[in-house]
Write a structure and sequence with these properties.
One of its GO terms (molecular function) is mismatched DNA binding. This is DNA mismatch repair protein MSH2, putative. One of its GO terms (cellular component) is MutSalpha complex. InterPro entries: DNA_mismatch_repair_MutS_core, DNA_mismatch_repair_MutS_sf, MutS, MutS_con_dom_sf. With about 270 residues, the chain is α/β, with parallel strands linked by helices. The protein folds into two domains: about 140 residues, MutS, connector domain (Nucleotidyltransferase, domain 5, 2-Layer Sandwich), CATH 3.30.420; about 80 residues, Orthogonal Bundle (MutS, DNA mismatch repair protein, Chain A, domain 3), CATH 1.10.1420. It is built from twelve helices and six strands. It has a six-stranded mixed β-sheet, with helices on both faces. Strand 4, helix 2 and strand 5 form a beta-alpha-beta unit. The chain is globular. The protein starts with 9 loop residues before the first strand and ends with a helix.
Length: about 270
């Protein structure tokens, strides 16, 4: 499939995946890391021969690079590489030895807050393939990027079922995102993103892309979101007050949090 949709990758997020094939069943472990939030997200799922669940996950999270293992199946490896290309993700083939989790618990103790307990992550470690990915990312951040992640990271489990799973074919068929090849075409100008994006801030535009590529499945959460949007559309005074008094003054909180932590680390060094 040709990669025309402008799904911008999230440069603040990287990913590692491990594909384990046994008796024709593919179990995929995944771990994300968000640089701004100092957060690891783990998940594990069974996928089909077309890797449709993995494709949907790429679209949901939009990481900029991905570490992956060879499956020893040339056809499967080619399919995964095509997914990377289609989603604009930089692929990094990773030696299987780097997925060794022998020392994972010791590594976890060094990255979680000092007042946290390693026993709180027993459920996370049950995700064996995702744990392998977590180990790869920890070592990469510490030794390749020299990223200081000691005692300040959170580790959570990512629930893919909270969002509708969209693949590239659905994105194209539903005209959700603009087409980067035909920037002046009728379809491009009437894409759902172009139609809805009346945002006045970059934070709002990024959030809208997230909403469109991660549609909620919970009816209660959907209605809560719609009620908030409806209030801002219908209540001019509330909308103008929030925009003028708050939104224009609020930076991207994740970036601000990251910046403050960097300042704190520099002060500690001094």
């Amino acid at each position: 499939m040709e990669n025309n949709e402008t799904v911008e990758v999230n440069n603040d997020e990287i990913l590692c995946l491990f594909i384990d094939t046994k008796k024709y069943q593919k179990t995929i472990g995944v771990c994300f890391y968000n640089y701004l939030k100092y957060e690891f997200l783990m998940t594990e799922f069974i996928d089909n021969g077309y890797f449709t669940a993995l494709e949907s996950l790429f679209i949901q999270k939009r990481p900029c690079k991905c570490f992956f293992n060879s499956t020893t199946d040339l056809v499967d490896d080619e399919k995964v590489l095509n997914l990377f290309k289609m989603c604009n993700i930089e692929p990094i083939l990773t030696d299987k030895k780097k997925y060794d989790i022998t020392n994972l618990k010791e590594e976890l103790k060094s990255i979680i807050p000092q007042n946290d307990d390693i026993r709180n992550y027993d459920k996370h470690l049950e995700l064996e393939n995702a744990s392998k990915c977590l180990m790869v990312l920890i070592n990469y951040l510490k030794f390749k990027e020299d990223e200081d992640i000691n005692y300040q990271c959170s580790i959570n489990i990512y629930n893919m079922n909270l969002y509708m799973r969209l693949d590239k074919a659905a994105i194209t068929a539903l005209n959700i995102l603009p087409n980067k090849k035909n920037t002046h075409s009728y379809n491009n100008n009437t894409s759902l993103l172009k139609f809805l994006d009346k945002c006045n801030t970059s934070i709002g535009s990024k959030k809208l892309v997230s909403w469109l590529t991660q549609p909620l499945t919970n009816a209660l959460e959907i209605n809560q979101r719609l009620n908030i949007v409806e209030t801002f559309i219908n209540e001019d005074d509330i909308r103008n007050s929030v925009f003028c008094n708050y939104l224009k003054r609020i930076p991207e909180l994740d970036k601000l949090n990251h910046y403050l932590k960097e300042i704190n680390k520099n002060n500690d060094i001094r």
